[in-house]
């Protein structure tokens, strides 16, 4: 996606630059105002130091919030605000904007920065805002990070370069480029990037004072190894979060399930070992990840009546059999623990809108 974003912006610059060069000999072209904002360089002096590293490193419960849509495929900001407010009311400490769960990879950079800015503007005094600025293109990652801090986010989250992989030295150089701008959380999820970030790279980057920590999805053995060396770690796996927190020393969790049951996930992260609650939630965790996230989550939130049943392709709703399974899970766990106030229902295929272009 980042490759396509970069390609389209380069094509746009090529076309408009040629036109501008020709026209500026006698007048200023109005095309200059049409250049995408993320192509404009931004000074790192725009970084807002609202949050100390100690505050960022102490976040125990962060929800990777879902981005809801309108029937035309654009953002449904009223519903988004409602989702975030429900998280805050249940004591969630941080919101991850436009991450994997928030479908940042289905957004333009302008959309992504706008959503970060909106979240900061509406909720920045109540919750820490972590903005996804990751890209496999270092130049785009730098610009997105500058833009994100300029609009007020507290920290940037960065995946390692994917598809066009690089060496360990390249990873270090890539991350140091964004670490020079402000607080960064490294995101290691080989199931998506197809490239594990080696511990040797993370330990080298830990020498940079702007490294907040790492969101680790490879498993709790890795979490325990890092915490044993004094690094701050969040697991990105709901199903491993209880043990990561209470047995492996993780600071906390970046949660998908928190979109649905923020109160219970906070309890799991704040109130000590609770294997009974963890076992009760395991079927829900398994259900959420039986297909790539956030497909099941999107379907679940729609069936709870808290978002409109709209998908941006390539995501589509799960089959009706799995939709019925979710209704049963809600009844087993208790409707009162889930977000929203409407009765959970099994939506029909015709209830969903799938948008290909937006």
User: Rg from C-alpha positions?
Assistant: 21 Å
Mean pLDDT: 89
Can you tell me the CATH topology of the domain at 53-272? TIM Barrel
Instruction: Note the run of SSEs as H and E.
Output: HHEHEHEHEHEHHEHEHEHHHEHE
- Unreliable spans are 1-48
Oligomer type: single chain
Give the strand order of the largest sheet, numbering strands 1, 2, ... along the chain: 1-2-3-4-5-6-7-8
Distance between the termini: 15 Å
CA-based shape: globular
Strand content: 5-15%
Annotated CATH homologous superfamily of the domain at 53-272: Aldolase class I
Q: What is the top-level CATH class of the domain at 53-272?
A: Alpha Beta
Biggest sheet: strands, sense, closure? 8 strands, parallel, barrel
Second-tier CATH architecture of the domain at 53-272: Alpha-Beta Barrel
The count of DSSP E runs of length 2 or more, i.e. the number of strands, is: 10
**What's the total helix number?**
14
Kindly name the structural category.
alpha/beta
**Fraction of helical residues:** 40-55%
Enzyme class: lyase
GO molecular function, one term: 4-hydroxy-tetrahydrodipicolinate synthase activity
Family: Belongs to the DapA family.
Organism: Medicago truncatula (Barrel medic)
